[in-house]
Write a structure and sequence with these properties.
The chain is of the alpha/beta class. The protein contains nine helices and seven strands. It folds into three domains: about 100 residues, Rossmann fold (3-Layer(aba) Sandwich), CATH 3.40.50; about 35 residues; about 60 residues. Strand 6 and strand 7 form a beta hairpin. Helix 6 runs parallel beside helix 9, helix 7 crosses helix 9 and helix 8 packs antiparallel against helix 9.
């Protein structure tokens, strides 16, 4: 049985350190740079890495010594060894683990696995095969994207707005849940979401009239 538990973590103000400025480091930096303070350390960097905003680049002339690396990750939440040297990656991973810093491995299972992500507004779906089958992850993602269409993002917004409205009008939580569920099952609401959010909202509010 796997010990991995899917979690959503707020990375704002957290530090992520990536060792390696090649294509793998670039991909990781592009992802984490949107959420965390991201530092990339390497001999050289891809052109795209140098163009990414809010990414700190540190050029090293030689491989980091153990103490130097330990100082670098002292306040880090996550370390990603992403060089083209598997032995060096392993060595850095061991140091990070000894210092209590989580590790995302690019060539093996580490403490953290980065899933394939589908984002629809406030809806976020992560897909992982625990690094055993990346092709299957991509396949599953494609199938889910066929079902979880962009309209789901608007439905999440609509549900949130109606829920907040009902909190001030309907004191009974069970009654509020029934209304919100009826909106979810209303095919007309879903049809309107494809063309007009305002019409969808108006249709949804009809479910509130009998209760308020």
């Amino acid at each position: 049985m796997s010990g991995f538990l899917p979690l959503f973590i707020d990375l704002c103000d957290q530090k992520v350190v990536i060792i390696g400025g090649g294509s793998v480091g670039e991909r990781k930096a592009a992802l984490f740079g949107r959420y965390a303070k991201t530092v990339v350390v390497s001999f050289e960097f891809t052109e795209r890495l140098m163009e990414l905003e809010d990414i700190e680049l540190i050029t090293m002339d030689e491989k980091l010594g153990d103490d130097e690396f330990a100082d670098l990750i002292d306040d880090a939440f996550l370390v990603i060894p992403a060089t083209d040297d598997p032995v060096y990656n392993e060595h850095l991973s061991d140091i990070a683990s000894r210092h209590g810093v989580l590790v995302n491995r690019v060539d093996d299972l580490g403490d953290v696995i980065i899933p394939s992500v589908i984002a629809r507004g406030d809806i976020v779906i992560g897909i992982s095969t625990l690094a055993h089958s990346p092709a299957l992850s991509r396949y599953i993602r494609g199938r889910i994207e066929e079902v979880i269409t962009p309209e789901y993002a608007d439905m999440a917004r609509l549900q949130s707005e109606v829920r907040e409205y009902l909190k001030g009008k309907v004191p009974d939580q069970g009654a509020r849940q029934q209304i919100l569920w009826a909106i979810l099952e209303d095919e007309t609401v879903w049809e309107y979401l494809g063309t007009s959010y305002e019409q969808a909202f108006g249709q949804a509010m009809l479910h509130c009239e009998d209760v308020i």
